[in-house]
Amino acid sequence: MNILETRAITYEYRGGITALHNVSVTVPRNGCVALLGSNGAGKSTLMKHFNGIITAKSGEVLVDGERVSKENLRVVRQKIGMVFQNPDDQIFAPTVWEDIAFGPTNLGLSPEAIQERVHQSLQLLEVEHLADRPPHHLSGGEKKRVAIAGILAMNPDILVLDEPTSGLDPVGIRELVGLLRRLVQTRQISLMFSTHHVDLVPDLARYVYVMHAGEVIGQGTVEEIFADVSLLSRARLDVPILTRLVTSLQNRGVPIKAGYRFEDVEQALYSLISDKPEMR
Ligand SMILES: Nc1ncnc2c1ncn2[C@@H]1O[C@H](COP(=O)(O)OP(=O)(O)OP(=O)(O)O)[C@@H](O)[C@H]1O
């Protein structure tokens, strides 16, 4: 069963702005799904439907097979861990430790269980050294990790991250992507994230929805989406740098296999070079 599904969601902001039109997306259990779209595509608006922050004009949202309604919001919010773009919106306790303990405490867990959850989350996000610090004095990247740790401490079935890399420097982005990759590999958790950074997607996602002007204009595997240059251009998105490199080499007659992840392209280039003794 899918952990998360929207069926033909349409949403209008006040003033008649249609931010979403007939949007249907699914995240299977243990799936890693990217919501790819440029500014104003409707990504944040869609995500706000998942845990009932806003309600669609038409269409429905299902979490773990149950239609989201006022009556089941508490259960839904336990299953869906949302991390918003601005971590300041989510961090409010005097110390990082207390902040991460807030969710498990609200779930009514025993002090030992809370201790265990906080400890695990601090470890997973590699922020143990920040446990006693006031969250508001942390850097943007540290705050982001603390916000994710706080959500993970509630043991959600799916982690939903709105623009997880916004405001991070290149090293911060690389570190966060590495952490998230390890997280989905080591824990039974699904992931959906939104972004306009095409280069980020192959490293984290297996399936991609491309949004533009409030609609899903394309969906498919990473390979299918990044092979469709006209789709990316309609969505006002870049072609990933590795795709550009491989396509350019192919156009010059180099027999290199298409690849979207750094490791794949590195291996493909290495194989080509290894076949030519003069280049070794
Ligand atoms: N509170 C609001 N009131 C009116 N219109 C809004 C509101 N929030 C968003 N919109 C409009 O809805 C559309 C979708 O916005 P949304 O924030 O969901 O896009 P996004 O894909 O998350 O963009 P970004 O990448 O810039 O964060 C945009 O046209 C935006 O101007």
UniProtKB/TrEMBL annotation:
Keyword set, alphabetical order: ATP-binding, Cell membrane, Membrane, Nucleotide-binding, Translocase, Transport
Ranges for domain ABC transporter: 4-238
UniProt keyword Cell membrane present: yes
InterPro entries attached to this UniProt entry: AAA+_ATPase, ABC_transporter-like_ATP-bd, ABC_transporter-like_CS, ABC_transpr_CbiO/EcfA_su, Co_trans_ATP-bd, ECF_ABC_transporter_ATP-bd, P-loop_NTPase
GO biological process terms on file: cobalt ion transport
Highest taxon in the source lineage: Archaea
Membrane topology of this protein: Peripheral membrane protein
Listed GO MF terms: ATP binding; ATP hydrolysis activity; ATPase-coupled transmembrane transporter activity
Coiled coil location: none
Pfam families per record: ABC_tran
Subcellular location: Cell membrane
Family membership: Belongs to the ABC transporter superfamily.
Task performed by this protein: Probably part of an ABC transporter complex. Responsible for energy coupling to the transport system.
Entry protein name: ABC transporter ATP-binding protein
